[in-house]
Design goal:
about 170 residues; mainly alpha
Length: about 170
Amino acid sequence: MPDSYEIWRLAALRRDANALAPFVAYATADPDTAREALRLSAQVFAATPAELDEAQDAVDTLRTRADALTPHPHQPDTPRPSDADARTRDYVADIRREALDGAAPEWRFTVRLFLSVGLRELLRRPLPPEVREDALYLHTRTAMALDLGHREAAEAELARFQRLRREYA
């Protein structure tokens, strides 16, 4: 099983390829460049965490092709860091989902349901601002661990969330 950092990097590359390749294919006047952009995107999406260097080279090529088309009204914007992380998490979930065992989806659903109900319960109460912030932070950390498919981290963050919920519920 590849480590979480490799999976995160691959997910970020897929995110970038998914934004750059369609733009290059659309905006270029050269059919060969358009076909190359689609081929490079397919290469990134077919890559495994062990093939990060090849995927990085493909995204770098796409970025170079996109930069050559500047200025263009449909050029993809560089997302803010929080937006980029949120988009990357979607790709991470797809990559990790392939590696999870058969019982994991049911367990993840149960934990997400518990988190959702627990967070709503906590946020309905008159809590100090720092406790509300802690509840949202722990909810997010648990959700990220679930998205990464890291069961031990999710269980640890869930235990922290449960302690907070018991203390203030």
